[in-house]
Automatic annotation (TrEMBL):
Protein name: Alcohol dehydrogenase
Recorded family membership: Belongs to the zinc-containing alcohol dehydrogenase family.
Cofactors required: Zn(2+)
Record-linked Gene3D superfamilies: Medium-chain alcohol dehydrogenases, catalytic domain (3.90.180.10), NAD(P)-binding Rossmann-like Domain (3.40.50.720)
Keyword Metal-binding: yes
Source organism phylogeny: Bacteria, Bacillati, Actinomycetota, Actinomycetes, Kitasatosporales
PANTHER family linked: GLUTATHIONE-INDEPENDENT FORMALDEHYDE DEHYDROGENASE, ZINC-TYPE ALCOHOL DEHYDROGENASE-LIKE
Entry keywords, A to Z: Metal-binding, NAD, Zinc
UniProt-listed InterPro entries: ADH-like_C (IPR013149), ADH-like_N (IPR013154), ER (IPR020843), GroES-like_sf (IPR011032), NAD(P)-bd_dom_sf (IPR036291)
């Protein structure tokens, strides 16, 4: 079958690889109809991780069940399902508590499992014609038949769930004010989720014009950090000492002003942007992605975070990978009911063969490349 294969920094190609097959009774084989390129793939694409040549990318997958293992009870061939990016067992301590990003069975002692991702278990990705889904009764979220809402549902695999998770980590309540740093797909979905929850005002900080245009379109307030200090811009617009809740949807790869070595820039900006006793949700990645990297503090996750100001203001913060499975059913039902339409972030829908070009353009944050969906069956 055809799949998007990583060969080294800035190098992916669509290659012929072995088709996956059922390996355990709980598996299903999925014929992938939609799979997305994610900002998280760029950590590997840009060579900032220990991802090895030959890895098939793709953790945001939707498709039709082709074949079921003999132990699968709730799924049938022909059924359309979306696959939240966490590979999880459904029965360990963390899965039972809904913390499916921290499954103790699939990748013990580490941050759970994921398809097509370095250090997240032996699970090839779904930017391919077929995908093996383990513990399928738990990991497949059933969808209505047909093709309706295909792009909306595909975003349940990661970014809609992650945006929503960010608002949960931050504790966003109706009527509150929220600042989101990063207008990538994840930041846009976080802002959208805050608005779905009834936030009174939502600010989104970035510098990419086409992304800030989407912020405006959804009814939130765009803040261009290249124009002026984003913290001051938000406080001026708000007429207050700070917002109730802050969200980091950038992570360690934040663009920092020239000459400033400050990989925790966005976290420190959020500490200043949120009012005393407010709270922060961090979904932007800060994990040490390359255990074999040279002895650099930032590669190990040691960053200059202003814990003094954080303490002084009595702030709280939630962090981590998204328990995508936890929200997928409710968010799916909001899409079906017409209450949510996250696909407004989707900018391209392309055949799998276009993946190398799409990676290069998405990586450069080219204007108009906000979220790319690939269709392996086209
Ligand atoms: P992205 O790279 O497309 O978006 C990041 C955005 O941040 C870009 O638009 C960029 O211009 C902007 N940015 C850069 N520096 C900034 C700064 N100083 N201030 C404000 N904005 C700045 O990626 P994405 O797909 O939106 O993902 C965002 C982050 O979320 C990544 O780190 C990704 O790995 C992470 N992520 C986490 C989870 C999770 O489960 N926690 C899931 C998906 C993605
Ligand atoms: Zn993703
Ligand atoms: Zn588990």
């Amino acid at each position: 079958m055809k799949a998007v294969v990583f060969h080294g920094p800035y190098e992916v190609s669509v290659d012929e690889v072995e088709k996956p097959r059922i390996e355990a009774p709980q598996d299903v084989l999925l014929r992938v109809t939609t799979t997305c390129i994610c900002g998280s793939d760029l950590h590997m694409y840009e060579g900032r991780t220990a991802a090895e040549s030959g890895l098939v990318f793709g953790h945001e997958n939707l498709g039709i069940i082709e074949e079921v293992g003999e132990g699968v009870t709730s799924l049938k061939p022909g059924q359309r399902v979306v696959i939240p990016f966490n590979v999880a067992c459904g029965f360990c301590r963390n899965c039972r508590a809904g913390k499916t990003a921290f499954c103790e069975t699939v990748n013990p002692g580490f941050a759970g499992g994921a398809y097509g991702y370095v250090a997240m278990g032996p699970y090839p990705g779904g930017q391919a014609e077929y995908l093996r889904v383990p513990y399928a009764d738990f990991n497949c979220v059933p969808l209505p038949p047909g093709e309706e809402h295909e792009a909306d549902f595909a975003l349940l695999a990661d970014i809609f769930s992650t945006g929503y998770h960010a608002t949960e980590l931050a504790g966003v309540q109706p009527g509150e004010t929220v600042a989101v740093f990063g207008a990538g797909p994840v930041g846009l979905m976080a802002a959208y989720s805050a608005m779905l929850k009834g936030a009174a005002r939502v600010f989104v900080v970035d510098r990419v014009k086409s992304r800030l245009d989407l912020v405006e379109q959804m009814g939130a307030t765009p803040i261009d950090y290249t124009v002026d200090d984003p913290i001051q811009q938000i406080k001026d617009a708000l007429g207050d000492v700070g917002v109730d809740r802050g969200i980091d949807a950038v992570g360690y790869q934040a663009t920092v002003p020239a000459g400033q070595e400050q990989p925790a820039l966005v976290l420190n900006q959020l500490v200043e942007t949120v009012r005393p006793t407010g709270s922060i949700g961090t979904v932007g990645l800060y994990v040490p992605t390359d255990p074999g990297a040279p002895d650099q503090d930032s590669a190990k996750g040691f960053l200059l975070f202003n814990i003094g100001r954080f303490f002084e203001k009595g702030l709280r913060m939630g962090t981590g990978q998204t328990d995508a499975k936890r929200y997928a059913h409710q968010l799916r039902d909001m899409i079906i009911a017409g209450k949510a339409k996250p696909s407004f972030v989707v900018s391209q829908e392309l055949p799998l063969m276009s993946a190398p070009d799409a990676y290069a353009r998405f990586d450069k944050r080219e204007p108009g490349y906000s979220k790319v969906l690939l269709h392996p069956q086209q």
